[in-house]
């Protein structure tokens, strides 16, 4: 049986990630662009779908909790999330 070693005593065998200044700037720009795209996709959603996505992914609520807050059924909350994600995926490819 292997003995467990406390995390603070474990050796890190993963290679360190070293980015050049240029790679870091490119990475930051890509992140900003992804954020702009996501923001536009969210803003293009109908208000109900946008609210469900916000509650689900930004607040981490369950569909049951979302349903209670919005006074809809959990199934409707799931359907709204599904439709929103599907619409965002389609619009992303345009």
What percentage of residues falls in helices of 4 or more residues?
55-70%
CATH fold-type name of the domain at 46-94: Arc Repressor Mutant, subunit A
Structural class: mainly alpha
CATH class category name of the domain at 46-94 = Mainly Alpha
Summed over residues and divided by their number, the pLDDT gives a mean of 84
Quick take:
It contains four helices and no strands. It is mostly helical. The mean pLDDT is 84.
Can you walk me through this structure?
With 94 residues, the chain is mainly alpha-helical. The protein has a domain at 46-94: Arc Repressor Mutant, subunit A, CATH 1.10.10. Helices cover 66% and strands 0% of the residues. It has helices spanning 21-43, 47-58, 63-70, 74-92. α1 crosses α4, α2 crosses α4 (74-92) and α3 (63-70) crosses α4 (74-92). The termini are far apart. The mean pLDDT is 84.
Primary descriptors:
94 residues; single chain; mainly alpha; Arc Repressor Mutant, subunit A; 4 helices
Layout of helices and strands:
Elements lengths: L20 H23 L3 H12 L4 H8 L3 H19 L2
Helix pairs in contact: 1-4, 2-4, 3-4
């Amino acid at each position: 049986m292997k003995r467990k070693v406390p995390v603070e005593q474990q050796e890190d065998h993963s290679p360190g990630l070293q980015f050049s200044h240029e790679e870091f700037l490119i990475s930051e720009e890509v992140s900003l662009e992804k954020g702009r795209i996501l923001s536009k996709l969210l803003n293009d959603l109908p208000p109900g779908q946008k609210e469900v996505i916000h509650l689900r992914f930004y607040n981490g609520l369950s569909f049951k909790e979302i349903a209670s807050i919005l006074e809809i059924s959990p199934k409707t909350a799931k359907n709204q999330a599904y439709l929103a994600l599907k619409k965002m995926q389609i619009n992303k490819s345009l």
